[in-house]
Amino acid sequence: MKKRKNSILITRDEKLLRIISYLFVVVYVVICFYPFWNVFVNSIANKEESVRGVYFFPKAPTIKVYRDLLFDGSFLRSVGISFSRTVLSTVGCLVFSAMFAFLITQENLPYRKFIYRFAIITMYVSGGIIPWYLVMKAYGLYNTFFVYVVPNLLGVYYCILIKTYIESLPPSLIEAAKIDGAGFVTVFFKIVLPLSKPILATVALYQAVGQWNAYQDNYLLVQDQALQTVQMTLYNYIHNAESVAKAMQQAAMSGADITELAKNAANATTADTVRNATTVMSMLPIMMVYPFLQKYFAKGIMMGAVKG
After folding, report:
1. Which of 29, 99, 138, 223 is the one with CA 20 to 30 A from 13?
2. Is the full-model pTM beyond 0.85?
3. How many CA atoms lie within 13 A of 196 on its CB side?
4. pLDDT at residue 43 greater than cutoff 50
5. Nearest by Cα to 81 from 248, 225, 263, 238
6. In this predicted model, what pLDDT tens digit does every residue of 210-228 receive, in sequence order?
């Protein structure tokens, strides 16, 4: 390699290789980004353009769907429910899963291996939806906010990741703290948790995404409209838009008078526009959180990988 005045001369083959690499990266980024862009531009397209389909940017963009969503009290309330659910479930899951994982690493814990293996079995064996539904009702969690939080306070998969990470920490740190008189709680909160930030950030990201997108417990166990999560509310928006379109289609096919239906839907956007807008609204919170946890993600998932 030739050098001239602190600069490195690059051969023609290396330049060609760099150009090909940059082109490959650009194409890959476009392929990954375009589906999100397509969803967004179709969410701000007017009714006529939405029917035809928008590929780059609409000629007459409109934010009517977003305005309707943001000024709808039920939507904002559901966002608050989902936000509260996500925060409480994530924090609770981190604390209890990390504490259980730390307990399993204690060699003086009676039946430690049995407890750990029994916990792993629950990942593969489930009673099904009906027993789960009956158990939730028996615990008094039916139609309450706590049905979103209590069943999610412990994740076995997360315990495995955190346990493996804790075992990679230097044992001398914990032993030194115990010699200085630190108890289990002190060691856990002042030694283990601060050193486990990478894996905890990884678990927090997994749990937060899962809780924000969850809807099954809401669909089966919550009937109170004041406790609806954002995913169920968005589903209702899409279902209502599709119902209006389907009703107009059926009325037109039967030859009935659709004046009233047309009047109600005159300024309405299509079901696809509502679907795209709700998709964007549900993605934004997670996309805003991920950059803050990204620096811990790769390190945490590698250090917490399951070992044999």
Report:
1. 29
2. no
3. 30
4. yes
5. 225
6. 898 888 889 889 888 888 8
For residue 45, give both structure tokens: 């397209």
**Which amino acid is present at 208?**
A
